[in-house]
C-alpha cells in the first residue's frame, strides 16, 4: 500500500521534514511517496497563499494519482482537501481535520496552538468548516510565524508550551500543535503539558491508512462523486 | 468610480451576460470593467472546478487591480473571495454573500434555489462559511445543471418557480436564485412567487458600490491585512 | 427618492445630529426627511424604554409613510424595525442590523463597542435575534452611558478606542461603534484602531438606499405581508 | 398571594376566558387579578400588533403593580415580557416561555402547534430569542387564525390534533398548543395525541407562582435592574 | 402528595442535609420521602462515579416508585434523570436541569459556580445535553472539591462569592450555585452578589411539585414511553 | 497488542457475532479479547437499559483492564464510553462515535439508519453529546427493533436500503448503519446505496488501534484524569 504525502507549498526541505515525520507513523505494509507544489508560496501563511496552493496541491497530486492508495495533504490549513476528495478514488486526509477528529476520541474539548496571530481567524474558520466548533475550547497564537519557528524550533519550546498550558487552564483536555513545520515538536513539548499533545502528521497518517483499510466505495452521488 | 466584475470561469460569453446584468444595477457615477479567468472550467460545477477557478480568479483580478474601486466576484460560489479581500485595498463582494446579507434586510429566513442536486452541499457549506446558517430556511435544487439552464433558460422557468414556491411553503420569506448563469431570470420568475426573489448580481453590485462609498481603511491587523 | 430617518426617542436635538450624519452618506438623487418619537424616553437605555419607543417609532413613521421610499430606524437597538418592515411597502433598515451585515462584507468576525455595561445583554440578544452570532467576536462596554457620551464625546475618545483595541486583540477584524448618539465619532477614532470602524448611520443609509434600488416587491406571503 | 394576569390585547371576553383557565392552575393561597390592554389589536396576529400591544401591556401592568406578587403575560407571543421583567420587582412569566421550559422537563424535543401560517416565523424567532431552539422538533400551523378558532373551537379539534400528530411522527416528545385563545383545549385534544399536550396558561401560572415561592431578590446589576 | 428525594451517592448524612433543604421549599399538601444509593461513591466527583451512581439511583427509586407522586434526583449532575423519566409514570426532575430552566425565567444569561476544576467539563457537557447552552454565560470553578466544602462550608463563602461575582462581571444575570452538598448556602452568599443566586434543591422541588400539578399523561410514544 | 471488545448487554451470542466482525478489521499484530456485561438487558433498547448497561460495561472492562492496549465499546449507544475513558490508561472508542468521526473523513454530511422509531431521540442526543450535530444530515428509523433484525437480518435488507436511500436523497454523502446487531450488514447493502455505508464495528476497531499507535499519555489534568 502506498501513501502519497503532498506538501502544498514549494519548499522541498519541508517536504523532506514532513516525510520523515510521516514515516514514524506509517503502519506496517505501507510505503511513503511525496509530492511538492510546483508554484505558490514557500510557506503558506495568508488567505492568498492558501488559495494558490490549493491549485498547486491538486496538480501535484493528480500527477501521481495512479500510484497511491491514500493521500495526506501535508498542510495544516487542509489546502485543497475538498477538491482532492472529489477527484480521487482513494482516501484523502488533511492535517488539521485529522487532528480535530482524533482529539474527539481523546475526550472533551481541545485547544489549538498556532503560529502568527493573523492566522487565528483562518484556523477558527477551518474548524467551523469541518463542523467541529462544538468541541473547540480555544485557539492560542504565538507571535512568531511558521518560518521563524521552523528555522529555530528549540527557541520556541517554552513559548509553545506556555500557549498550550493557557489552553489547559481554559478547559482544553487535549491540545493540537498546529502547523506542518512543527511536525514532531510534540515529543519535546509533551513533558511540559498535562494533557495529550496531538501532532497533525501522526494523526493524518494514521487516519488515512485506517480509512484505506475500510475500503469504502467512491460515492456515486452527491458532491464528492467524480463530475 | 470603476467596478471590476470578474468571471472566474473561462467563458467570455458568460462574462458578457454577467456584465449586462451588472450594468442594470450600477449606481450613477460608476463604470464597469470585466475580467475573465484564463484557465479552469467553462462553468464551475464541482469542488475541483471551484478550487482551480480560485487561482484563475485571483490572477485575473490582480492583473487589473490598479484601476478599480471595488470588485464583484461574479460566481455564485464566491470563488476566491477571501483571498482577494486580503490582497486588495478595495472592497470585494461575492454573489452569494451579497444575496444572503441582502436577504437578511428583507426579513425572516431565506431559501436558495440551485441548479444540479450535487451542488446543494457546496451551497450549504458556503452559507455556513459565511456565518449565515441561522437565517437559512432551506435549499431546493432543480435537476438540471447550470450549463443546461444557461442554454435554454425559458425551458426551466416553471421548474425554478416550483422550487421557489416549495421554499415559500417551508417558511422562506425571500428566495435567492443562485447561479451566475441565471442572473436576470428573477425578473421573469417574480410574478410566479409570492415573496421577493433576489438576484445575486444585483445584490453584489449594490453592496460593492455601497461599501466603496463607506471608504473604510485597509485593515492593518488580522487575517485581511496585506501580508 | 426620499429617505425617512426616524429617531425613536423624543430628543429632537438627537434627531438633528443623526440627520446631519445621515446626509453625509446619502447617495445622489436622495433627499432626507426626519421623524421623532412623540412619547417615551429622551435616550433609550433600558428594556422598558425600548418597548415603549417601539410604539412611538411606529406611529412616527406611519404618519409619514406616504412620502418616503426607504426608512432608516435611527436607533442602535433597531427599535420597531420588525413591525415597520411588516407594515410598510418600502425598505426599512436598522442601525445595528446594517452595521452587522456590512461588517460581514469587511471580512472575518466583528466586535461591538457599546455604552453602559447594562446594555451588553441587549446587544448580545439583538445580534442573536438578527441571526448574526456566528460572526460576533465580542462586545466591549464602556462604563459611561449614552447620555454622558453624547454630552461630551471628546472626553470618551480614549476609552472608546481602548475598548475597540481590546476587541481587535481578541480577534475582531472590524469594530462597530454602537449607539445613535455616537454617530460620526468613528472618523476621529479610526486613526487609533487598526481595523475598520463601522458607523451605524453610514451603514444604514447605504443599505436602505441600496435596497430601495433593488425595487423588490412587497411580500404576499409570510410574516411580513400586510395583515 | 396575588397573581396578576394581563391580557395584552383589548378583548375583555378573552381576558375572562384566560382568567377562567388560570384559576384552574392557581395554587392554594393565591388569588387572581386581571388587566386588559387599553389600546391595540383585538387579537394579536402580526408583528405590528405585537409591538403596539407591548406598550399597552406595560401600561396595563404598571397601573396594577403595587398589588401583585407575580405576573403572567397572557399572550402566546410573550408580548412585553422582557420590559416588564425589568421594571417589576416580582416574577413575570410569559405563556410561550413557560411552555417551552416546562416541556424541557417532560423530556426530549417538543413541537408547537400554531394558528395561521404567517405566525410560524414569529414563533420560531421567539423560541430562538428564549435560547430554546436546541429542543425544538418543529412547528406546525393550521390555516385558520386565532379569531376563527376562538369563535368555534370545536370545529378545529381534528385539525389541531392532526397537526400535533404530525409533530409526534417527526420526533416531538411533547406538544405545546400555542395561543392564548385556545387555553384549555388541550383537555379535549389530549386523548387523540400520544404525547403530553402542554397548555401555556397552566404552565405559566405554575411557573409564576413557583418562582414567587423562591423569593429571589431583584437584580442590582445587569439588564434587568431598575434603571 | 408525596415527593421522593433520591440521593444517588451513598452518604446518608448528605441525604439528611438535602432533605432538610428540600422541606424548606415543599408546597403545602406535600410530604417528603427519601432514598439513598446502595452502592457507588460517597460523593460523586468523576465520570465513573456518575455512571455507577446512575444505576444505584435507578434501583433506589424503583424500590419506592409505588408510593410517590414526583421525584427529585438530588445530585447536581442529574444522575439517572433520563432513565428514571422513562421508567416512571410521575415527574422526575434533576437539580441542575431545574436550576437552568428556572434561571431562564429570571432573565438573560446565567453562570454556574462549581466545585473542583476537573468538574467544569462535566457541567458544560450537561448544559449542552439539556439543550441550554444558548443561555450559559460561563462556568467558574473553585479549586476545592465538594467533600471539602461540605466539611467546612463557612470557610469557602468568600471564594464562592468571588466566583459568582466574576460571572456577574462577565455578563451573568443570575448565578447557580451548583452542588448538592452546598444546598442552602445561597442564603448566606446572596448578600454578597448583585444578581439572584439559585439553589438547585429549591428549584427542583418547586419544579417537580409544579409539574405534578399539571397532571400530564405518561407518553405512549417516543423515547420516554415505558418500553 | 491486545484489543478488548466489550459487549455491554448480556447476550454472549451477540458478543461472538461482534467479535467475528471485529476480527475482520483488526490490524496486523493485534489480537482480540472479549468481555460481556454480567447484568442488564439482553439487547439495549431504552434509556433505562442503557443506564444499567453502563455500570455492567464498566465492571466487565475493569475486570480485564490489566491485559489490554485498547478498548472498543461494542454498543451503538456508546454505553459507558466516557466513564471508561476516564478510568483506563488505554484508548477507549465507541461504535457510534467512531462512525461519526470516520464519516467526517468521507466528506460532507452523513445520515444514520437506526432500528426502532423510539430510538431516534437517543441517537440524536448522542450525536449532540459528541459535538457532531453540524455534520448530521438526518436520522431514518425502520419500525423493527434490533432484536427482530438480529433474528432475521435478510428480511430487513430492503427496508434498511430504502432508509439509507431516503437519507441520500436528503443530502447525506455517507450513511452509518447503526446498531451492534447489524455489524457486517453493510457488505450486503452497499450495492444498493450510492454513497459509502459505514459499519460501526469496522470504524471503531480501526480508530481504537490507530489511536493506540499514537501512544498518547494519560491526561494529568481535566475530567479524564484518574480521580
Automatic annotation (TrEMBL), chains A, B, C, D, E, F:
Domain of life: Bacteria
Coiled-coil intervals, chain numbering: none
Entry similarity comment: Belongs to the HyuE racemase family.
Record's protein name: Hydantoin racemase
Amino acid at each position: 500500500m502506498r501513501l502519497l504525502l503532498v506538501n502544498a507549498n514549494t519548499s522541498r526541505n519541508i517536504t523532506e521534514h514532513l516525510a520523515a515525520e510521516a514515516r514514524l507513523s506509517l503502519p506496517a505494509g505501507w510505503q511513503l511517496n511525496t509530492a511538492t507544489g510546483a508554484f505558490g508560496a514557500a510557506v503558506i501563511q495568508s488567505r492568498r497563499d492558501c488559495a494558490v496552493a490549493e491549485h498547486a496541491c491538486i496538480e501535484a497530486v493528480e500527477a501521481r494519482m495512479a500510484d497511491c492508495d491514500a493521500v495526506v495533504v501535508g498542510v495544516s490549513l487542509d489546502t485543497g482537501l475538498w477538491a482532492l476528495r472529489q477527484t480521487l478514488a482513494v482516501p484523502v486526509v488533511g492535517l488539521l481535520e485529522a487532528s480535530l477528529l482524533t482529539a474527539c476520541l481523546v475526550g472533551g474539548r481541545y485547544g489549538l496552538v498556532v503560529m502568527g496571530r493573523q492566522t487565528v481567524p483562518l484556523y477558527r474558520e477551518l474548524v467551523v468548516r469541518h463542523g467541529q466548533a462544538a468541541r473547540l475550547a480555544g485557539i492560542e497564537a504565538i507571535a512568531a510565524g511558521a518560518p521563524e519557528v521552523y528555522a529555530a524550533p528549540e527557541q520556541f519550546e517554552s513559548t509553545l508550551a506556555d500557549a498550550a498550558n493557557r489552553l489547559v487552564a481554559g478547559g482544553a483536555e487535549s491540545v493540537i500543535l498546529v502547523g506542518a513545520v512543527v511536525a514532531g515538536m510534540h515529543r519535546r513539548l509533551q513533558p511540559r503539558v498535562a494533557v495529550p499533545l496531538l501532532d497533525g502528521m501522526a494523526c493524518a497518517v494514521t487516519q488515512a491508512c485506517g480509512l484505506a483499510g475500510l475500503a469504502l466505495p467512491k460515492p456515486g452521488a452527491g458532491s464528492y462523486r467524480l463530475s
